[in-house]
Design a protein that fits this description.
about 260 residues; alpha/beta; Metallo-beta-lactamase, Chain A; seven-stranded mixed beta sheet; 14 strands
């Protein structure tokens, strides 16, 4: 696998951190690691089949996408993969419009997600010959768990996890995997993560939640697939201060933060 760079654009839960109206120690913290935009991750892979020599894949497109791109850089994105249709993972899709200068792109999600996106923002996905000026130049394609998708020379493998009772997608690219909003996973889908060395995984807080993993469950999941490194995302303000909570984690298990970048 070619060299890969991963940038965590946002690591917070659906309300973001600080949460509006809250004066808890996390929401009033001066540590920038305690300020968390909604979840989105940019993966850049060296790829000789791409015109630029690199393929850029966005995983989820949060309502904070515009702010994230202003902070972390405006450059071509080749494809977007959406884990599920909840607003905190798709609310930035209209802000794809400026990226039209680089050409068309495709948004991938499962059938449930793509159906709901078409219903929610149909103007974004009208046929090319009838699109009016200014709308995002994006196509929408449904994918199935376990069936790889190729973007230039890069293979992306969707896998299914359960967000409570809702089936959603995680994504594997080589030895890297991105899994958010998971509560449980079936054994056949978990097997698709065999050999993953670097895992991005959700851990909402310490107290149990019906549709999200706790931090402790996220660590146990990373251990169960034998990931060498794991970075916890989708954290709420209930988790606690980054400086204190990160120090409690086992070796090679980390609380992520906005702007964190690493290479594989």
């Amino acid at each position: 696998m070619s060299e890969m760079t991963v940038t965590l654009l946002g690591t917070g839960t659906s309300c973001g951190v600080p949460q509006l109206g809250c004066t808890c120690p996390v929401c009033t913290s001066s540590d920038p690691r305690d300020s968390r935009l909604r979840c989105s991750t940019l993966v850049e892979i060296d790829d000789d089949q791409s015109e630029e020599g690199v393929t850029r894949i966005l995983l989820d497109c949060s309502p904070d996408f515009r702010q994230q791109m202003l902070r972390f850089g405006f450059r071509k994105i080749d494809a977007i993969f959406i884990s599920h249709e909840h607003y905190d993972h798709v609310g930035g899709i209209d802000d794809i419009r400026p990226f039209a200068v680089f050409g068309d792109m495709v948004i991938y999600g499962d059938e449930y997600c793509t159906t709901h996106l078409m219903e929610r923002i149909p103007y974004c996905f009208t046929p090319k010959d009838v699109r009016y000026p200014g709308v995002p130049r994006i196509d929408l394609e449904a994918v199935d768990p376990g069936v790889p998708v190729r973007v230039n020379g890069v293979e992306v493998l969707p896998l299914q996890v359960m967000h409570g009772k809702l089936p959603i997608l995680g994504f594997r690219i080589g030895k890297f995997a991105y899994v958010t909003d998971m509560k449980t996973i079936e054994p056949d889908q978990k097997k698709l993560l065999d050999g993953v060395s670097c895992l991005i995984v959700n851990g909402l807080r310490h107290d149990p939640h019906p549709t999200h993993q706790t931090v402790e469950e996220a660590v146990a999941f990373a251990d169960s697939i034998q990931a060498e490194e794991a970075y916890i995302i989708h954290m709420s303000h209930h988790l606690g201060l980054h400086s204190e909570e990160d120090a409690k984690l086992p070796p090679n298990r980390h609380l992520a933060y906005d702007g964190m970048t690493f290479s594989l």
